[in-house]
Each structure stands twice: as structure tokens, then as C-alpha cells.
Write a structure and sequence with these properties.
mainly alpha, 5 helices, 3-stranded antiparallel beta sheet, 5 strands, about 210 residues, elongated, two-stranded antiparallel ribbon, single chain
Length: about 210
């Protein structure tokens, strides 16, 4: 961090990386919580022991996997926002921009999923983002829509703002991918700061 000219930039970059590391450390444990909830739900619905009380508990665990997926997407979103912060020109770094460009499509997909769950209440029938399709027959009203669903195939399905259905990987491999992005970011910023230090240090020494 001593490589940057601005003391404020040093503090900003350091704080951004500290926070990024905290979310990175939570990615795998949070992903495991999704599939632990799914496993619990499945155990309660298999075999002769599948009684009414078990079904109620199974649904609760199934809904918990949905909530855990929300927090998982928050980790992705926070990492993406921190990369955006490091991309600001006042930091004088090019590496974060390269990382963002390289992984832009992936980062945006997980941010969309977070947005879908973050604004869940707005997607309720009659809400600000109501896109439910209604049909009327014999005095009955039928409504179909998408509120987001964690699937056993280790994917999350949702309908984006443009009405397109999307399927997003939330398997353990996706957690590995986010860790890989964070590792790339740290390594490439370290290289860039090292190069900056080689230019700045001689100039500073020349002043004394």
C-alpha cells in the first residue's frame, strides 16, 4: 500500500480489501448452508416417515434454502461493489478494471439474482413489480408468476427485469469461482502496486 502517492488512496484501498476478504471468507460456508437446508428438506420427505408434521418442517427447510441463497447473492454483490470502488480513477489502479471487464457478465448475473430477492415484496401480486399473469374461468382466478426458486440441480431460477427466465449456478463450484475472482484481484493489484513502487521510490529518494 506504500506504493500509492495519496495517503487517502492507501487507506481506501486497504479498507476495501479488508472488507472484500471478509465476504470472500463467508462465500463457501454460506454456500454450504444452502445445500444443508436442501438436504434436511429432502430427508423429511423420503421414506415411510413422511407424515404431515414432517412435510411442514420440510417446507420450512426448503424456504430456508431460499433465504440462505439470498445471503449468498449478497456476498457476490458486495464483492462486485468493492471491485467497483477499486475501479475508481482516484485510486490510480488499472488491475481492478481489467478484473471487472473479464468477469462482468458473471458478476452482473449474481447481482441480478440478489436484486430479485432483495425486492421480493415488490413482486407480490399487486406490488410495484407485479408481473403475474392472470386468467379467469368459471369464476376462478388463476395466477402464475416467478418468485425465485432454489432447485436440486444446484441452480437458482428467476425471471429478470426484462421478463427473461434465467438459471444461475449456485453449486459449490460457484463459490470456488468467486474465491478465484478475489484471488485474481489481489494478485494483479499487488503486481501493479509493485510496479508503482519501483517508479515512486526512486523519485521520493531523490528529494532528500
Amino acid at each position: 500500500m506504500q506504493a500509492t502517492e495519496s495517503g487517502e488512496a492507501r487507506v481506501r484501498i486497504r479498507m476495501a480489501f479488508d472488507r472484500l476478504d471478509r465476504y470472500r471468507a463467508m462465500v463457501k460456508p454460506q454456500n454450504e448452508r444452502i445445500w444443508e437446508a436442501q438436504r434436511r428438506s429432502q430427508e423429511l420427505t423420503i421414506g415411510e416417515a413422511c407424515i404431515h408434521d414432517n412435510m411442514d418442517e420440510s417446507i420450512l427447510w426448503l424456504e430456508r434454502s431460499w433465504v440462505e441463497a439470498h445471503f449468498y447473492f449478497i456476498c457476490w454483490d458486495c464483492v462486485a461493489k468493492l471491485i467497483d470502488t477499486l475501479c475508481e480513477r482516484r485510486n490510480g489502479l488499472e488491475a481492478p478494471r481489467s478484473i471487472r471487464k473479464r468477469h462482468r457478465v458473471t458478476l452482473e448475473s449474481y447481482r441480478e439474482a440478489r436484486d430479485h430477492l432483495e425486492h421480493w415484496t415488490e413482486r407480490l401480486p399487486g406490488g410495484l413489480r407485479d408481473r403475474w399473469q392472470r386468467s379467469y374461468a368459471q369464476s376462478f382466478t388463476t395466477m402464475t408468476g416467478d418468485m425465485g426458486l432454489v432447485r436440486l440441480e444446484r441452480t437458482f431460477t428467476f425471471r429478470d427485469a426484462k421478463g427473461h427466465d434465467k438459471e444461475l449456478d449456485i453449486s459449490p463450484a460457484s463459490a470456488e469461482l468467486l474465491e478465484h475472482i478475489c484471488k485474481q484481484l489481489r494478485e494483479e493489484v499487488a503486481v501493479e502496486l509493485g510496479e508503482m513502487a519501483e517508479c515512486i521510490l526512486p523519485r521520493r529518494l531523490g528529494k532528500y
